[in-house]
UniProtKB/TrEMBL annotation:
One BP annotation, GO: protein import
Membrane topology term: Multi-pass membrane protein
Superkingdom of the source species: Bacteria
PANTHER family: PROTEIN TOLQ, TOLQ-RELATED
Localization: Cell membrane; Membrane
Family: Belongs to the exbB/tolQ family.
Provenance organism: Brevifollis gellanilyticus
Keywords: Cell membrane, Membrane, Protein transport, Signal, Transmembrane, Transmembrane helix, Transport
Keyword Protein transport: yes
Protein name according to UniProt: Biopolymer transporter ExbB
Annotated signal peptide: 1-25
Domain MotA/TolQ/ExbB proton channel per the UniProt entry, residue ranges: 124-250
One GO term describing the cellular component: plasma membrane
Amino acid sequence: MPSRNFSALALIALFFVWMTSGVMAQAPKGTPATGAPAAAASSAAPAEENPYAAALTLEGFVQRTGVMAYPLIALSMITAFFIVLFTFTVRQGTVVSDAFMNSADALIRKQDYLGLLAVCNRRNECIARITAKTLDFATRNPTASFEEVKEVTEAEGNRQSSLMLARIAYLGDVGAVAPMLGLLGTTLGMITTFHEISATEYGGSNQLGLAQGVSEALFCTASGLAIGIPALIFYSIFRGKVNRLISEMEAATTHIMALLAVQYKRAARAAAGRPE
């Protein structure tokens, strides 16, 4: 199953890299020319055949997107960082592990709560933090009922779930902000272009300038979408994984609370002088 997830992520990433590169590398087709002057112009300036190829470099990207290049570059780096981070941290070992559950099961049956608390303090798992919070409350309040202990456990479980969902929410925020920044860059570019056109006589050269300005302005929107779409896709993938891990954490918490409920019943029977 992990290999399938990594394969799916790799295919999605390669698809968007290919799609973005293809869009930015396309050259706009001009009006066909006739005669020797056209041939001479095409041979004299071969670099003009693909004007968008320069946008694939950092300098060309900054020139075409203007002031919005820097926040877009920052968002692309943040997106890549979060994708790599969540790929290695959003996993079952950081939420609940079989090793901890086996230790907790054995220690609770032996009523070695201090030993279990020591194990919880050594483990960096969500279920360990929930168990530690439960045991800490139970040991500090020996007269507390099982229902009160259960409420503390549920509250800590909800807190851990919220923290897990809040972590991956940053990737969703990037996916929402990046297209908006691209649209803002496009709007600013259009304002600048039309202002320059209105300040001069509207002729053939100005028409070409208008087309070029609009093309460069729309490049901001394309850049924002190229960042936001993969961010939202990976956010959806990680959100599904987190929801599955939360379900497993809830099942593990229920198991631990069931074991503690048995121990509370035994203690109540012993206090009442009845056999177990």
